[in-house]
Design a protein that fits this description.
Elements (H helix, E strand, L loop, with lengths): L14 E6 L11 E6 L4 E6 L7 H12 L4 E8 L5 H19 L6 E8 L6 H14 L5 H7 L8 E9 L2 E10 L12 E6 L5 H13 L16 E6 L16 H21 L7 E9 L2 H13 L1 H8 L5 H9 L12 E4 L2 E5 L2 E2 L5 H8 L3 E7 L5 E8 L3 H8 L4
Helix pairs in contact: 1-2, 2-3, 5-6
């Protein structure tokens, strides 16, 4: 079993949380998390774009649109996806069970689930565990919560940043889970972030979308977008600042910078912890006609099983990279204008093998635990980065045994 790291974090004023064991799928470990948000908190979220989205995603979207949430309820081990009408009833029943205990409306609860698809949610186990969680709510339980939401993750992912807002020290803390079925196209498997800064609800959503686009939306492990992806951000306002409401607000840059940094660090942690991964790989595409074009090429390289297995083997098989660029779907791509580097080693120039390139130099780069693949398209001034990993024997084993 992977040694669990010590988790450093800052509690967020206005947020209490607890983790407990409901026996949803796992034995002898916590698998249920409850967040309590202070009255007056604002929330924003992004969800999966998978059309076959899970019941909790459908319900959380609806509840978020109905008013300000006070509770986040998260379970691991069961995705409650592919469960039809009963899935929605089960997600609703979980919210109702919490509402009856707290005196809040069920619509004030956002439900989240992760785990095996196609199995019904054991609502009665969740309901039975809720009273204990309510009694254990505390500001310092972020590490326990980060571990409780894990599925195939080897390590928990928890990040904090402190920054200045209006001359006061503000806090932003976030946790995430995810190691496989990662090509979010919105966010990550599951991400939960909170700050004590006051932010207007509509602008909070804009800030989150911006941060997600450059972090969770720029990673891939295996090209699979989950049915349950969600990333949610709460702003409690406990700091007492004038609410940030626009990019022109004096504290916007400080807040957005902290949010970007936390999301990037969590997204990087997901790829580092990817199922079976041995290498962290950055694909940087430059000289594109647009940012979208650069991402298109980057994702084509990052998704390629042939590129990913070559990375695992430390094989500088640059033909696989060139083939991925060629099939990325760019109109009128001039091959003679393409250059490719492994780290600082130029491997492709003028559309073919660079005259200075040697296999020994390429192999030396590929043996490193962190690798940069840099592509210059020679078509414009835009660029993008995608974070990915290699594809190993263990990825196949973990996913072959997932339901065993």
């Amino acid at each position: 079993m992977t040694e669990q790291p010590e988790l450093h974090f800052q509690p967020v004023p206005g947020v209490r949380l607890a983790a407990g064991a409901a026996g949803i799928r796992y034995q002898d470990r916590n698998d249920l998390v409850l967040f309590e948000l202070a009255a007056g908190s604002t929330c924003a979220a992004v969800f999966t774009r998978n059309a076959f989205c899970a019941a909790p995603v459908t319900l959380a979207r609806a509840h978020l649109g109905a008013g300000a949430p006070r509770w986040w309820l998260i379970n691991a081990g069961n995705a409650n996806a592919g469960t039809g009408a009963r899935g929605l009833l089960d997600a609703s029943a979980s919210c109702q069970a919490l509402a009856e205990l707290t005196g809040d409306a069920p619509e004030r609860v956002l439900p989240f689930s992760t785990g095996v698809i196609g199995e019904h949610l054991p609502v009665e186990r969740i309901a039975t565990a809720l009273p204990a969680l309510l009694g254990q709510l505390a500001a310092g339980h972020w590490p326990e919560a980060a571990r409780a939401i894990m599925t195939t993750d080897r390590v928990p992912k928890l990040v904090s940043r402190q920054f200045e807002v209006g001359g006061r020290t503000a806090t932003l803390t976030g946790m995430a889970k995810g190691a496989g079925m990662i090509c979010p196209n919105m966010a990550t498997m599951l991400g939960f972030l909170a700050t004590d800064v006051a932010v207007e609800p509509g602008f909070l959503a804009a800030c989150l979308h911006s941060a997600v686009d450059r972090s969770f939306n720029a990673i891939t492990v295996d090209g699979d977008t989950s049915t349950n992806d969600a990333c949610v951000l709460a702003a409690t306002g406990a700091l007492g600042n004038a609410p940030i409401a626009a990019a022109a607000s004096p504290d916007y840059a400080s807040f957005q910078g902290a949010l970007d940094a936390v999301c990037v660090e969590l997204a990087t942690a997901i790829v580092r912890d990817a199922e079976g991964a041995t290498k962290l790989v950055t694909v940087r595409v430059e000289g594109a006609a647009s940012h979208a074009e650069a991402r298109q090429v980057g994702y084509t390289i990052a998704h390629s099983p042939l590129v990913k297995t070559a990375l695992f083997a430390s094989d500088p098989n640059w033909g696989r990279i060139l083939a991925a660029i060629g099939r990325a779907g760019l109109d009128d791509l001039v091959i003679a204008g393409v250059r490719v580097w492994l780290g600082e080693v130029l491997i492709v120039d003028g559309g073919g093998r660079a005259p200075t390139y040697t296999e020994a130099a390429g192999a030396a780069v590929m043996r490193a635990p962190e690798i940069l693949i840099r592509v210059a398209l020679g078509r414009g001034e835009s660029s993008a980065e995608i974070l990915t990993c290699d594809l190993s024997y263990d990825y196949v084993r973990i996913n072959a045994e997932y339901r065993s």
